[in-house]
Design goal:
With about 425 residues, the chain is an alpha+beta fold. It folds into 3 domains: about 130 residues, no CATH class; about 90 residues, SH3 type barrels (Roll), CATH 2.30.30.60; about 100 residues, Alpha-Beta Plaits. Helices cover about 55% and strands about 10% of the residues. The protein contains 17 helices and 8 strands. The strands form 2 sheets. Strands 4-3-2-1-5 form a 5-stranded antiparallel beta sheet, with no helix packed on it. A 3-stranded antiparallel beta sheet has the order 6-8-7. β1 and β2 form a beta hairpin. It is rod-shaped and about 130 Å long. The termini are far apart.
């Protein structure tokens, strides 16, 4: 019994003009099928227009964001694609009854189509899940993109196996059993996803990197902000706006620097030296002490130090006529005290973190006076401006302490020396 006899008048007309009953029935069934197919397409577009229009209004008025993500990631668009597949599968047995071979092919294509739509819907749903999850603060510390990509791969693989099983008219279980023979090939093909998945678990469990972290990986020439963490790759936007792609498993097998600790600490390290010419270091005369006392931030230090040294020298009967006897202040020591006092009075320097102004071992470039402190400014531009302001001031202050900054002779210095050595000069 047929469900549809849309072209029954046509069939009767064909019989009336002398065609056989069976031939007329076959033509009638074929026309019924194509008419049904056209109606199904019309029904699909009507349903798409009506359903998506209603859903669009609902998502716009809704206060939640999850429905917007599902709509924007086209999850509902994919679900509506089930309508033509289901209708064709329902109509075909009644309209193609006289064409068993064609009916088998239509059923085969319809089943594969439905599996494909299911895969597309599942992928769209997982994309929406990621979009929804990204709206929560926890997504910055616990990224799930890699796990969702694994689910996508699994769904696609299962879908492909089901499609092949449909084409071969075999059970999917039978095909899954046969995959054991190709396990080595599969491991080779999916080496990067497998390594990336394992690395992703380690990265997430150990909180090694997060989206937005500043990382430096010299091996990959990466120096910038992490913008994406996926199953197989991590994308880093370098400070020159280029993008470096790093295999996820490299972040576990190779070393890299994550600057997140600096960001969370509230300070950023300043570690830089001023090189002092050794020949300019000397003991301070009383005239120099009196002049240095006029520097306001140095007065308390100098007064306390002078008192301490006078008590020591008196207690040990030091002959002050020779400067190397006993203990004396040097212009370099007072300069170090000045640098320390200057930094202590700078509100942009973190006073609760490591604070050092130290003299390093003299070398061919003079005596390094190293500043090892932390800036409250972490933003790159502000940090560099603060660092420049500090050393601009210190370099200008060095001559005030009868010191000289060490600098290798330039071509201009050599020319001046040559001019001075010419006869008659």
């Amino acid at each position: 019994m047929k469900l549809m006899q849309i072209s029954s008048p046509l069939k009767q007309w064909l019989v009336d003009i002398g065609l056989s009953e069976s031939f007329s029935l076959r033509i009638s069934d074929m026309i019924d099928f194509f008419i049904s197919l056209a109606l199904i397409i019309i029904i699909y577009y009507i349903a798409r227009f009506v359903v998506l229009g209603v859903l669009r209004r609902i998502t716009r008025r809704s206060s939640t964001s999850w429905d917007d993500s599902l709509y924007n990631k086209r999850f509902f668009h994919k679900l509506i694609l089930f309508i033509p597949g289901v209708l064709v599968g329902f109509v075909a047995p009644y309209t193609l009854e006289e064409f068993p071979r064609l009916l088998n092919w239509v059923n085969l294509i319809t089943q594969i189509y439905l599996v494909f739509v299911f895969i597309a819907s599942a992928v769209a749903f997982l994309n929406a899940v990621y979009d929804i999850y990204s709206g929560y603060e926890v997504s910055k510390t616990k990224p799930i993109k890699g796990y969702l990509q694994v689910f996508k791969i699994v769904i696609i693989l299962i879908g492909l196996i089901v499609m092949i099983a449909i084409l071969l008219n075999k059970s999917p279980v039978y095909l899954l059993g046969g995959l054991g023979a190709f396990s080595a090939v599969l491991l080779l093909i999916f080496k990067d996803p497998i390594l990336g998945f394992v690395a992703g678990i380690q990265i997430s469990a150990n909180d090694m990197i997060r989206q937005g972290d500043w990382i430096v990986m010299n091996k990959s020439n990466a120096d910038g902000e992490v913008i994406d963490i996926s199953l197989t790759t991590v994308k880093v936007q370098n400070w020159d706006k280029t993008i470096t792609t790093i295999p996820t498993y490299s972040l576990v097998s190779d070393s890299f620097t994550n600057w997140r600790g600096m960001s969370e600490s509230g300070g950023r390290r300043i570690k830089r030296s001023v090189f002092i010419d050794i020949n300019s270091v000397k003991f301070c005369s009383q005239e120099m002490i009196d002049r240095f006392m006029q520097i306001q931030i140095l007065r308390p230090y100098i007064e306390e130090k002078e008192k301490e040294l006078a008590e020591y020298n008196t207690a040990h009967n030091i002959d002050n006529s020779v400067l190397v006897n006993g203990r004396r202040q040097t212009n370099l020591g007072i300069f170090r005290a000045y640098v320390s006092a200057y930094l202590h009075n700078n509100p942009s320097i973190h006073q609760e973190m490591t604070f050092l102004v130290r003299q390093l071992q003299p070398g061919e470039s003079g005596i390094p006076i190293e500043i090892y402190v932390f800036s409250r400014e972490q933003e790159w531009a502000k940090y560099e401006n603060l660092q420049s302001d500090i050393f601009d001031h210190l370099l200008a202050a060095v001559p005030e302490f009868n010191l000289r900054v060490f600098q290798n002779p330039s071509s201009a210095d050599i020319m001046l020396l040559g001019s001075a050595l010419k006869p008659g000069n």
